[in-house]
């Protein structure tokens, strides 16, 4: 499965945003990107914004299955901190 992403670092701004968002499908990525653009960058949620964001989507160069073997970061941290 090819994931798509959008990365604020590729579009310089005064706030120097470093957020990168990825998803398995365009609709999910678009919703997350719109929420970020509105809440962080103070854009208005308009059809034009959605069209512009969709045009900026890129495909990830490597396909990943579930990260960390399906375990959450909290699970992995708990395992590291367990006494041996």
UniProtKB/TrEMBL annotation:
This is Uncharacterized protein DUF1059. Residues 61-84 are annotated as: Disordered. InterPro entries: DUF1059.
């Amino acid at each position: 499965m090819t994931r798509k992403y959008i990365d604020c670092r590729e579009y310089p701004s005064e706030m120097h945003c470093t957020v990168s968002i990825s998803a398995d499908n365009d609709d999910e990525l678009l919703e997350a990107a719109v929420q970020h653009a509105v809440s962080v960058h103070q854009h208005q949620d308009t059809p034009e914004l959605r069209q512009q964001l969709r045009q900026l989507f890129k495909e990830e160069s490597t396909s990943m299955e579930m990260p960390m073997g399906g375990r959450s970061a909290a699970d992995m941290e708990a395992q590291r901190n367990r006494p041996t």
